[in-house]
Amino acid sequence: MRASCEALLQFGARTLGNFDCIDLHHCHAWGGYSASVAVVVGESALHDEGGTGRPILLLHGLMGSARTWRRQVPWLREHGHVYTFDAAGHGRPAPPVLSTEAFVEDLAAALSPVAEPLVVIGHSMGALHAWCLAAEFPEKVAALVLEDMAPDFRGRTADDWAAMISNWPQPFETRKALVEYFGPVAGQYFLDSFEQRDDGWYLHGEVETFRAISAEWGDRHFWAQWASITVPALLIEGEYTITPEGQMRKMAERHPHAEYVRIEEAGHLVHDDQPEQYRKVVEEFLHELT
């Protein structure tokens, strides 16, 4: 492993343990980008990011936010009407029962203003919610793009990383302090996600909520939900994935209309770690849908 990766490996070691949802073995700082302006639809956490044509929905990962997609929104507008979504428990109240079904019900309710089936693009937790949405509400989903998530993490625990998150030095008083602590890629992810207050940046949800969300993944699998889906799907896995070995390939093998792509030199945040490669494969998939 290259020396330049050490800081991010330390980040993974001190935060997320067996559910290392932000561990990035290779990362790159970004240049400039055009941030989109979200418009809240009603009282929900669904944000209208603009564009025209088929609806495209972006779902973030655990401890993320709708804003973590802002580098992808501009080019996705060229392919449709883009929406982003803040999951429950991420800057807003969590559902009473912390189950995947509850999060999917919350998402489905927020999508009521969108009449057409959506192309749903999800990262990590967002990918799981995407295919479970397609399983439970098939009329809402036209196609799926799933990034670095698998159906079966049974046997893994979240306790160690939850304890480590509790010990993060909050608030992070400056942007520089936050980025230095997490590294450039994960640091930007958290700058986009954390709550900024007068004295600095804070985690935008409860540690126990995040622990419970990921702990469920260690207790059950989601193969049945995946098996029920027939819409076209693109599965994207980073070279340095967090998923159990071979599972995303098996997902593609068991699906009649799925394509599997492995992105070299990418960690878990493929869309930010290797943005050009990610864009290329997603745009090719979107073109094939038309």
Walkthrough of the structure:
α3 (about 100-110) packs across α4. It is globular, with a radius of gyration of 18 Å. The protein is built from twelve helices and ten strands. It is an alpha/beta fold and about 290 residues long. It has a domain at about 35-150 and about 220-230 and about 260-265: Alpha/Beta hydrolase fold, catalytic domain (Rossmann fold), CATH 3.40.50.1820. The strands form two sheets. Strands 1-2-4-3-5-6-9-10 form an eight-stranded mixed sheet, with helices on both faces. The longest helix has 15 residues, at about 275-290. β9, α10 (about 245-255) and β10 form a beta-alpha-beta unit. Mean pLDDT is about 85; it is low at about 1-45.
Spell out the key features of this protein.
single chain, 290 residues, alpha/beta, Rossmann fold, eight-stranded mixed beta sheet, two-stranded antiparallel ribbon, 10 strands, 36% helix, globular, disordered N terminus, AB_hydrolase_fold
Counting helices, strands and paired strands, the structural category is alpha/beta
**Main sheet: which strands, in order across?**
1-2-4-3-5-6-9-10
Percentage of residues assigned to helices = 25-40%
In whole angstroms, the N-to-C terminal distance is 41 Å
CATH topology of the domain at 33-152 and 221-228 and 259-266: Rossmann fold
Distinct helical segment count: 12
Question: What's the total count of β strands?
Answer: 10
Gyration radius, in Å: 18 Å
In the CATH scheme, the class of the domain at 33-152 and 221-228 and 259-266 would be Alpha Beta
CATH architecture of the domain at 33-152 and 221-228 and 259-266: 3-Layer(aba) Sandwich
Q: Strand fraction band?
A: 15-25%
* Unreliable spans: 1-43
What does the main sheet amount to?
8 strands, mixed
Mean pLDDT equals 86
The CATH superfamily name of the domain at 33-152 and 221-228 and 259-266 is Alpha/Beta hydrolase fold, catalytic domain
Q: Looking at the structure, what is the overall shape?
A: globular
The secondary-structure element order is HEEEHEHEHEHHHEEHHEHEHH
